[in-house]
């Protein structure tokens, strides 16, 4: 079995590479990644030593390159993690989100049709459902919840999802889609809430909380996301969507305070800043379908998972310090100065 993991030099794709090498030592894993600002070969250092792993640099939206690669490699399964993934960046510069997230997905699926595969899996997000109100804790996203996006990022992910389902209906491409809630864990790029707050708190820098910090996210450890995708690509029904989440809702301010307490830092570091434009209020996944149909169960709860994650950032300072000492400085200034 040969699996192409696109976006494998990023956060979730990188964790998935390690998960698959560990769980399926007989599989060949090829990581295809353009190494954008979010791609990092240091994340894959451990995998590079494994003879069953190979890294290929390239853009999923580059049709000629992708066709040559597919012709040469003869993949069985494609798992498409490659994407522009940060909501704030999509608000500043939406175009590359459409190019990579929509056009890139189309190029990959065209290659699948042309050269043949047994499964194309699209890694999507709960953000395609929009948001839920804060005062209705009884409401959750199911696979039947209508698509109702808020940001250029989520719109581009929804556009890709619709295209994936269209390729199933029109061409019979064997596809599956998973829609996951917010991930956390090792190798998370420090522009995202949890690693941003850990790295800034350790440097005694202010922690920018959008609005009042009341927005709710449903946190899932990246390991549990990987185990769910492994199940979907092997046992999921083609043409189906599976929601993934572990019922770990927290307000942003709760998450930030948990990090501060774990690091023994004062709450005075918190700085309430101008809210994100179009900021989604609450995400909450109903995972009944994947639990009952495929028998998936998460192993982490947030309270222990976040402590382990904080420890990982303490034990792996050089990984994130190399990132925040580079171009990242300019990004942070542009996004937060005067906010
Ligand atoms: P990430 O930004 O950490 O990594 C994205 C990776 O894709 C990077 O390695 C980057 O170099 C690569 N990439 C970007 N454009 C590319 C292109 N044109 N061609 C090839 N490679 C390209 O993202 P992540 O957080 O690991 O998210 C992975 C996937 O999971 C995305 O599709 C995202 O929408 C989805 N998702 C993420 C979360 C989350 O909480 N992070 C939750 C649900 C779904
Ligand atoms: O500095 C910050 N301050 C802050 O209050 C940042 C970066 C974020 N926030 C808030 C915004 C959100 O309510 O924290 C929450 C989480 O923000 P992000 O880490 O940017 O994640 P989110 O926007 O929820 O999207 C994430 O989950 C769904 C991923 O980035 C997406 O790729 C995924 O689809």
UniProtKB/TrEMBL annotation:
Entry-linked Pfam families: GDP_Man_Dehyd
Keywords associated with the record: Lyase, NAD
Protein name: dTDP-glucose 4,6-dehydratase
KW Nucleotidyltransferase (keyword) present: no
Lineage top rank: taxon: Bacteria
EC class: lyase
GO biological process, one term: nucleotide-sugar metabolic process
Lineage: Bacteria, Bacillati, Bacillota, Erysipelotrichia, Erysipelotrichales
Family statement: Belongs to the NAD(P)-dependent epimerase/dehydratase family. dTDP-glucose dehydratase subfamily.
SUPFAM superfamilies, per database record: NAD(P)-binding Rossmann-fold domains
EC number: 4.2.1.46
Domain NAD(P)-binding: 5-309
């Amino acid at each position: 079995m040969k699996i192409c993991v696109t976006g494998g030099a990023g956060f979730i794709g990188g964790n998935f590479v390690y998960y698959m090498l560990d769980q399926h030592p007989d599989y060949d894993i090829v990581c295809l990644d353009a190494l954008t600002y979010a791609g990092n070969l240091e994340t894959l250092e451990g995998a590079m030593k494994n003879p069953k792993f190979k890294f290929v640099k390239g853009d999923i939206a580059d049709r000629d390159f992708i066709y040559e690669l597919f012709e040469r490699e003869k993949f069985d399964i494609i798992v498409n993690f490659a994407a522009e993934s940060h909501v704030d960046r999509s608000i500043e510069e939406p175009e590359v989100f459409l190019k990579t997230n929509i056009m890139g997905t189309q190029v990959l699926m065209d290659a699948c049709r042309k050269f043949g595969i047994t499964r194309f899996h699209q890694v999507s997000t709960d953000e395609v459902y929009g948001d839920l109100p804060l005062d209705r804790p009884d409401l959750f996203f199911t696979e039947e919840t209508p698509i109702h996006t808020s940001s250029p990022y989520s719109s581009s992910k929804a556009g890709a999802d619709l295209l994936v389902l269209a390729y199933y209906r029109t061409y019979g491409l064997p596809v599956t889609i998973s829609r996951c809630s917010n991930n956390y864990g090792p190798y998370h790029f420090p522009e995202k809430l949890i690693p941003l707050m850990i790295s800034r708190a350790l440097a005694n820098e202010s922690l920018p909380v959008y609005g009042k910090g009341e927005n709710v996210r449903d946190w899932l450890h990246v390991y549990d996301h990987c185990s769910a995708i492994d199940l979907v690509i092997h046992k999921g029904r083609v043409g189906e969507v599976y929601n993934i989440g572990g019922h770990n809702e927290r307000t942003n301010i709760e998450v930030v305070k948990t990090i501060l307490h774990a690091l023994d830092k004062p709450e005075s570091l918190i700085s309430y800043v101008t809210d994100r434009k179009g900021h989604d209020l609450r995400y909450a996944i109903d995972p009944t379908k994947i639990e009952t149909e495929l028998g998936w169960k998460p192993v982490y709860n947030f309270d222990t998972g976040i402590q382990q994650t904080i420890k990982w950032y303490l034990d792996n300072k050089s990984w994130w310090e190399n990132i925040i000492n580079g171009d990242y400085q300019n990004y942070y200034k542009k996004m937060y100065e005067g906010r």
